[in-house]
Automatic annotation (TrEMBL):
Coiled coil: none annotated. This is SNARE domain containing protein, putative. Belongs to the syntaxin family. The chain crosses the membrane at residues 207-229. It comes from Angomonas deanei. InterPro entries: SNARE (IPR010989), Syntaxin (IPR045242), T_SNARE_dom (IPR000727).
């Protein structure tokens, strides 16, 4: 760790811690007879801390591990200073506004009671026409919203009725599909029986033809035998 960088960073930490305590002391004097001195002291303290921040900027950005502990102390001290400084700024603004109000009151020479009387004289009757108009508009919007809600309910009821009707008709459609399927099965069965009967008819026709031929042959043979027997 470079000795000059570490020493500079350590001194800056001590200065910032002292600046935090000095700011608290200066804030306590705000709004008192030493107000201007306290404000000047706060400006000088802030300048000193800013110089410490700028002077150690390069050291804080370095990656030297030996300075890590001092860096953490520096950041911690700066965080504390930023918090105390923010409180002091708010206190300065508050005391400045209070002092300004007191000066204005003294310059005007007006007491609190007189100021209330002046404010009361400035009060004017309020025109309620605009409020009535706005109320009528809001009522009209509410009425339209209720009408829309009623229409939505009617639409929902119609949807449920239509859905129920579709479900009822669906049962009839399913029954018709079953009947069609049964009819198709019966038609196929009848077609098979017709084909079977046609095949049987063809067989019977062939058998009839064969029997006829056999009978004719038998008759011819009988005739021939009878002719030869008569000779």
């Amino acid at each position: 760790m470079p000795l000059d960088e570490g020493e500079s960073l350590s001194r800056s930490v001590q200065q910032i811690k002292k600046a935090c305590q000095d700011i608290k002391n200066a804030v306590a004097d705000l709004g008192t007879g030493a107000d201007s001195i306290a404000r000047d002291k706060l400006r000088r303290i802030r300048t000193t801390v800013q110089q410490c921040r700028d002077k150690n900027k390069t050291v804080l950005e370095s990656s030297d591990a030996a300075l890590q502990s001092l860096k953490e102390q520096f950041h911690s001290a700066m965080s504390e200073f930023d918090r105390v400084n923010a409180d002091s700024i708010r206190k300065e603004r508050q005391t400045f506004r209070q002092a300004g109000a007191e000066v204005l009151a003294q310059e005007a020479g007006v007491s609190a009671g007189e100021q209330m009387q002046v404010n009361a004289q400035k009060i004017r009757p309020i025109d309620l026409t605009e409020f009535h108009t706005e109320e009528a508009i809001q009522r009209e919007k509410l009425r339209n919203a209720k009408d829309i809600e009623t229409d939505m309910r009617d639409l929902k009821t119609t949807y449920h009725e239509f859905n129920a009707l579709v479900n009822q008709q669906q049962s009839g459609v399913d029954m018709m599909e079953n009947h069609v399927a049964e009819s198709h099965s019966l038609i196929e069965r009848g077609h098979g029986q017709i084909q079977q009967a046609s095949r049987h008819q063809k067989k019977f026709r062939k058998i009839g033809c064969i029997i006829g031929v056999v009978v004719a042959l038998v008759v011819v043979v009988v005739i021939i035998i009878a002719v030869f027997a008569s000779k």
